[in-house]
Design brief:
By secondary structure, this protein is of the alpha/beta class. The chain has 12 helices and 13 strands.
């Protein structure tokens, strides 16, 4: 990750789309999955608020590796800009951290891992969340936000965008079902804690997120496309790319998470989608190829690759509920792709 002036300018651009940011002043936020593509953007926004606006936000980064956290956020000083909390989402352990807000983003986000490690995938999505919900009840946390996924919707027969209460078919015995099934169960667990323990919980369902903070182990399609382009290679697609997706630039997604954290209605779920970026996989690949001045090519996938594919031909999301909170996306797919490639070039 390279922090430069253009990146911080992008952070500035998304801030106006987060209403009631002042509510975070002098509060504490515990984040799991902070080194990942999505939640790292949330951390960067909070850090920016502390540095530029003296927000006094205590940032708690919970994860398995203190070294990896320090490496990812090399621009921040451990013990001063953030505090590391030892946490493993796959292990049932008791935490004892007092915090105002919890954002749970730790999860396998690697399609190959859903197939190779279905048990760990389910444990992180359910056991890890349960640990945090227990912590929140014990310490009177103001709100817990859970990062779910557009995959909870399953498949439907038309190409209309999904609303938040619009569920389709999910084959729970499919070898890839560990991810969407456990995400569905985790959402129910959030609401169960709200009903039984009075805990304030809220859920976000991101679509397909792309951006400059791609980690080496991420083998999702847009991550691979970005990696190809940055390495000066043509972008290789392993399918026709006709599947319809809701794409969102990573900083837009981060701003949406904070918008829901501060303004969303409890016991509700919110789609995270840029309404101007509901396009096919081949279209986002073409945008990244054009931004890098490279070609887009096609070849057949290996059997192992095909097993990890998202089975939904349509995972487009309606974003009106999120937009009702005052949020709007800042980056079009063309600009997002260009920013992503230019960022690495710089």
């Amino acid at each position: 990750m390279k922090y430069n002036d253009s990146y911080w300018q992008d952070v500035e651009r998304v801030l106006p789309h987060i209403k009631n940011l002042s509510a975070l002043k002098n509060k504490s936020v515990l984040i799991t999955g902070g080194t990942g593509l999505i939640c790292s953007g949330v951390v960067d926004i909070l850090h920016y608020l502390n540095k530029k606006e003296n927000a006094g936000i205590e940032i708690l980064l919970a994860g398995r590796s203190e070294e990896r956290t320090a490496k990812r956020f090399y621009n921040m000083q451990a013990g001063k800009d953030y505090r590391f909390v030892k946490y493993d989402a796959t292990v049932s352990t008791e935490l004892d951290e007092k915090t105002d807000y919890i954002i749970h983003g730790a999860s396998n986000a690697n399609p190959a891992a859903y197939v190779a490690q279905p048990v760990e995938t389910m444990e992180a999505n359910f056991i890890g969340l349960n640990n945090l919900l227990k912590l929140a009840v014990k310490n009177n946390t103001k709100r817990v936000l859970y990062l779910s996924s557009s995959e909870v919707y399953g498949q439907k027969d038309n190409m209309d965008p999904y609303f938040e209460d619009d569920y389709g078919f999910l084959d729970i015995l499919n070898q890839r079902a560990s991810y969407p099934s456990s995400k569905r169960a985790a959402e129910t667990l959030c609401v169960a804690y709200s009903l039984e323990h009075g805990l304030d919980t809220v859920i976000v369902r991101p679509g397909h997120i792309y951006g400059p903070a791609v980690i080496p182990s991420d083998n999702r399609a847009t991550a691979q496309f970005t990696r190809n382009a940055v390495n000066g290679e043509d972008i290789v697609m392993k399918s026709a790319g006709s599947q319809l997706r809701s794409y969102c630039y990573s900083l837009d997604c981060a701003s949406a998470i904070l918008a829901v954290l501060l303004n969303g209605e409890k016991e509700n779920a919110y789609n995270i989608s840029n309404p101007d970026s509901i396009i096919t996989i081949s279209a986002i690949a073409k945008a990244l190829a054009n931004a890098a001045g490279k070609n887009l090519t096609f070849e057949n996938p290996a059997d192992a690759e095909a097993k990890g594919y998202n089975l939904m031909s349509n995972s487009s999301l309606d974003s009106k509920k999120l937009e009702s909170l005052g949020w709007a996306a800042e980056f079009s797919p063309e600009e997002g792709a260009k920013r992503c490639i230019d960022f690495y070039s710089e």
